[in-house]
Design brief:
The chain has 3 helices and 13 strands, in the order E-E-E-E-E-H-E-E-E-H-E-E-E-H-E-E. Strand 4 and strand 5 form a beta hairpin.
Length: about 230
Amino acid sequence: MTQSWQDLTFLHWAVEPGAVAHRMPPGVRPDTLGGVTYVGLIPFRMVGAGIARGPGVPWLGSFLETNVRLYSVDDTGRRGIVFLSLDADRAAVVVGARAAFGLPYRWARMSHGVSGDVHTYDVRLHRRGRSPESQVVVRAGGRRESTELDDFLSARWGLHVHAWGRTLYVPNRHQAWPLHDAEVLSLHDELMASVGLPDLAARPPDHVAFSPGVRTQFGFPGDASRPRRH
């Protein structure tokens, strides 16, 4: 599957590995840099998702998404991402991804607005009663040279997910993220609290970046306990 991720903002909070180790699939542990791992809140636009290398699927292949993620490494040394939630405004995408791969997609009402270099991302989950909400407002700046932390967080070539009774690694190929400086103008988030991380949004993020985007291609999932052949 090919996808284009555009107008993406990286927001990350440093946490102790032990605080999130229990959220990892079997055979996977938190990946660390400098003794800490990170929780990410990542809003963006999905554009032109398509099957294999074919063209994007009209309407269905373009939608808004915000995910809450952790950073993982398996026993073979492959680094990846573990999603705690993926909120999207296409109900069909939510149902399909949950059924096919067991990914924690949730249906939400979402919007993305741009005014000059300011990006505003709004999310409200479709739930009975009071629904968790999120609003992120950032000002994108100029292109920057990637730091060690930038590379640790963005140079991820797959995801780990527990599905069909085992832990899978799903490879993902893309060019290096073109990263820009970014300033958080406003942040109100309840999505991290909705997946059991209630205290993070009360403090400023430890890492912020913006990217105009990359084109990606997912490969076939494989058993995370087996090294891939090159």
